[in-house]
UniProtKB/TrEMBL annotation:
Superkingdom assignment: Bacteria
Gene3D superfamilies: Carboxypeptidase-like, regulatory domain, TonB-dependent receptor, beta-barrel domain, TonB-dependent receptor, plug domain
PANTHER family listed in its UniProt record: HEMOGLOBIN AND HEMOGLOBIN-HAPTOGLOBIN-BINDING PROTEIN 1-RELATED (PTHR30069:SF29), TONB-DEPENDENT OUTER MEMBRANE RECEPTOR (PTHR30069)
Organism: Porphyromonas crevioricanis JCM 15906
Cellular component, GO, one term: cell outer membrane
Subcellular location: Cell outer membrane
Name of this chain's protein: TonB-dependent receptor
Example of a GO biological process term: siderophore transmembrane transport
Keywords of the record: Cell outer membrane, Membrane, Receptor, Signal, TonB box, Transmembrane, Transmembrane beta strand, Transport
Ranges in coiled-coil conformation: none
Length: 821
């Protein structure tokens, strides 16, 4: 354990924040004299075949050793000295374009790149933009091509499971799509679809994520010290951009797996002006379950009487999601985007028990008494998102993006119990309805601006307003009569309240080349939350530095403060509908984190390596008090929680090969994470290890292209075991009840986790550009029994207990077929 750290007081942080903004605003004028007489070369970079804009394409001017990259809209801007200039445009996997132009005034030049053989991204001397030579620490671009080649789980590749293979990111629980980044909690990750946040990204309790890989164009993950343009979470940002759709032709994809199927269609609405992309996905286990209902019938009799009992049980589960993107090009300066997402998980149960008592009446049995009990439940949770985006080129140097969006996350649990009975002419009926609902509705309006007049500076600034409507825990109980049907009394009970909160945010960041070898990103973010009569003011300074030691070596350092206003209260260890998203209130302050990172980076040709160390302090964690939970107690959720702090620190090593027949990476993480709740409501106020305090983590991901039609992949993961809480003793109290003695939270370390996954892809090209792809994957190839859940089992008369593990994911063979047309 490292010693506690006393961080700066709020006034000191505010002073530092204002100082950084002062430097940010006035830094451009220091280089203004050097930039007089410059003109701008700007435009869009796109795929020549599909019309899709390319994010992160490199634009490089060799003579001045300056360059830039295209932004999230595929737009670029570069300030150059007038005259004849030779410019190189490149993008990984595309044939580069070198062109010479006579540049005497501002010029918009749109470039179309053709897919070509695998090419390494052009190195931009003095302004490198790869993950390892760029300014950001902990940023990784996730290759969608590599994702499609890795082993799948029950026929589905998953973006979040792919990200779990990177250093500094824990897997959470076996087989589940959660991110635990640098000792944070699972709710501290910002998931963005085209710049719009989603609160929950799990299907089937986390077995799958909501990101359909067929809909994704690019994805990047930022760990820890992310730039000022991102905010609202403490640990990471997963920035996903969806496909715009083919501008020229109609294309599609259909995939059939063991438990789900997918389809993707795209094409022009107006050729070269308007396009669409639609991706849908659904599981079909429920359709199979409906064909085989569970029914049990039993008849017993005595002295001519006959008692008939009948039981019917039905358990159905499915999830679905769909993504829709419409892209319209008004002219060279204005473009509109419409993004729609919806995803739901639905789990229903129904249990019908009936009995009838028959008395003999001659040769026939006459019913004397019947009774039926029917219990049903519905779990439903999911996201809805609709966003309208507007890209606007205000000038060759200034680009704007404005988004208006609506999102709704909900998790609903409802149960119904009905009883009917008939005894002769008398009949009675009763019912009980119970529901537990929670959710969030957001209305957002944001504007982001990018200014690049000078080749040595790249300025971003913007802001937004969000109106949040939280429904943290709404309980409804209704009973209908235990009397006869006509005079049944009605009782209704409703608990819970809506909490409204308004959030404002402003940010500015200046990416500046200070010397030939030293670059910096100086920025800050200011957010305010108004909830009831309370106003929270959160300054968040951000600073990143990069010292280029040579063409191959660089050192980066960063410091960042982050704030988070919404948290997830989990009643169990899996993502379930009973989890509550709750806001900061007048009684509960926002979470804060303070993180510093230092790293050494190396890159040569297609090889990369990095070694990063970090320290992070987190405050105002929220957790249920010991002995409490989502179903316990009748009071307000705010009365059942405690506030605490946490620490996380460690080192991360990554070795990577990006191109060639053999590609992939090796990663290792050494880390510590702990928590403390000073109020003694959790673990008696003592410090304890976090449940995902995995001391060692090692990942290997390798892809081998055997031929143009066959590739192989292998993933091996190792991790120290998660920590769980088990009682060390059980005893009988004076009332005869069994009580458990728990010495401390997370007192038991589960066995180490490791598994090997294998994948085989077979590509079968067909006429007219069509393609059939077979994927065969083996999950946990050597069938290691990894512990998923720990159960307690009493042992002997001394009351001591031992742990017994459950391993549900021992071995899985999956086959899927994808057809592209």
């Amino acid at each position: 354990m490292c010693p506690s750290v006393n961080f700066m007081k709020p006034m000191s942080r505010t002073f530092l924040f204002c100082l950084l903004l002062f430097l940010l605003l006035f830094a451009p004028f220091g280089s203004l004299a050097q930039q007089r007489g410059k003109v701008s070369l700007s435009g869009y970079i796109s795929d020549a075949q599909t019309g899709e804009t390319l994010i992160g394409a490199t634009i490089f001017h060799q003579a001045s050793a300056t360059g830039t990259v295209s932004n999230n809209a595929g737009f670029y801007s570069l300030g150059l000295t007038p005259g004849e200039v030779r410019i190189s445009f490149s993008y990984v996997g595309y044939a580069p374009v070198d062109t010479t132009i006579s540049l005497n005034a501002n010029l918009q030049l749109d470039i179309r790149l053709f897919p070509g053989k695998e090419l390494q991204e052009v190195v931009v001397t003095g302004d490198k933009r790869t993950e390892f030579a760029g300014l950001e620490t902990g940023r990784t671009r996730l290759s969608m091509e590599d994702l499609s080649r890795t082993p799948s789980f029950v026929g589905e590749t998953d973006l979040i499971k792919y990200a779990q293979l990177l250093p500094g990111i824990a897997r959470g629980y076996e087989g589940f799509s959660g991110l635990v980044v640098r000792g944070g909690n699972e709710d501290e990750n910002l998931y963005l679809i085209d710049g719009n946040p989603l609160y929950s990204v799990n299907h089937l309790g986390g077995l799958f994520s909501t990101f359909n890989p067929d809909a994704v164009k690019t994805a990047s993950i930022y760990k820890g010290s992310f730039p000022a343009r991102f905010g609202g979470r403490l640990s990471s940002v997963l920035d996903v951009h969806t496909k715009d759709g083919h501008m020229k032709e109609y294309h599609g994809l259909m995939s059939i797996g063991l438990i789900s199927s997918r389809a993707n269609f795209e094409g022009p609405i107006i050729r070269n002006r308007t396009s669409f992309s639609v991706a849908v996905r659904r599981t079909y286990a429920d359709l199979i379950q409906r064909l085989f209902p569970l029914e049990r019938k039993q008849e017993t009799g005595k002295s001519g009487d006959l008692l008939v009992t009948n039981t019917e049980v039905s358990n159905l589960y499915y999830f679905y999601d769909f993504n829709v993107k419409i892209n319209h090009k008004i002219n060279n300066s204005h473009r509109l985007f419409l993004t729609i997402y919806r995803g739901d998980d639905v789990f229903t149960t129904e249990d019908i028990n009936s009995e009838s008592y028959h008395k003999p009446n001659g040769n026939k049995a006459q019913s004397a008494y019947t009774r039926e009990e029917r219990f049903s439940s519905l779990f439903k949770w999911g996201n809805q998102l609709a966003a309208l985006g507007w890209n606007w080129v205000l000038s060759p140097d200034l680009f704007a993006h404005t988004t208006a969006s609506y999102s709704h996350y909900r998790s609903d649990l409802s149960m119904n119990m009905k009883t009917k009975s008939k005894d002769g002419d008398n009949q009675t009926s009763s019912s009980l309805d119970y529901s537990l609902d929670s959710g969030i509705k957001d209305l957002r309006l944001t504007s982001d601006f990018e200014f690049r007049r000078w080749s040595r500076q790249y300025i971003r600034f913007g802001g937004g307003i969000s109106q949040h409507f939280f429904y943290p825990n709404v309980e409804k109980i209704q009973t209908l009569g235990f009397q006869d049907m006509e005079n049944a009394p009605l009782l209704g009970l409703k608990r819970g309240e809506r909490i409204d909160a308004r959030e404002y945010s402003f940010y500015a960041e200046d990416e500046i080349i200070l010397t030939h070898s030293l670059s910096a990103n100086i920025g800050g973010r200011l957010s305010l939350l108004s909830v009831k009569d309370k106003l929270y003011f959160s300054p968040e300074p951000r600073l990143s530095l990069r010292q280029q030691m040579s063409d191959n070596w660089s050192i980066k350092a960063s410091y960042a403060e982050m704030s988070q206003y919404a948290r997830l209260l989990q009643g169990g260890f899996l993502s379930m509908p009973t989890d509550l998203w709750v806001p900061s209130t007048d009684r509960i302050p926002p979470m804060r984190s303070y993180q510093g990172s230092l790293g050494l980076y190396w890159q040569k040709n297609s090889y990369e390596a990095s070694l990063e160390g970090y320290y992070k302090y987190m405050s105002n964690f929220l957790a249920y008090r010991d002995g409490d939970g989502v179903f316990l107690g009748q009071g307000d959720w705010r009365d059942r929680v405690a506030l605490g702090n946490g620490r996380a620190y460690g080192a991360e090593l990554l070795l990577r090969k990006n191109t060639g027949r053999l590609s992939g990476w090796l990663s290792y993480t050494l880390s510590w994470a702990d928590r403390i709740f000073p109020g003694k409501e959790v673990n008696l106020g003592n410090r304890y290890f976090d449940k995902f305090d995995n001391r060692h983590r090692f990942n290997a991901c390798l892809i081998y292209k055997l031929s143009p039609k066959v590739d192989l992949s292998a993933v091996w993961v190792f991790s120290s075991g998660n920590r769980v809480t088990i009682p060390v003793q059980e005893y009988i109290d004076i009332n005869g009840n069994v009580q458990q003695y728990i010495r401390e939270r997370n007192n038991f370390k589960m066995p180490d986790y490791h598994r090997l996954d294998l994948g085989l892809n077979i590509y079968r090209p067909k006429a007219s550009g069509r393609m059939g792809i077979w994927n065969i994957s083996v999950y946990n190839a050597y069938q290691h029994h990894n512990s998923f859940l720990i159960l307690k089992v009493k042992k002997g008369d001394d009351g001591k207990v031992k742990a017994v593990s459950i391993s549900p994911f021992i071995f899985n063979l999956s086959v899927s077929y994808t057809f592209k047309f």
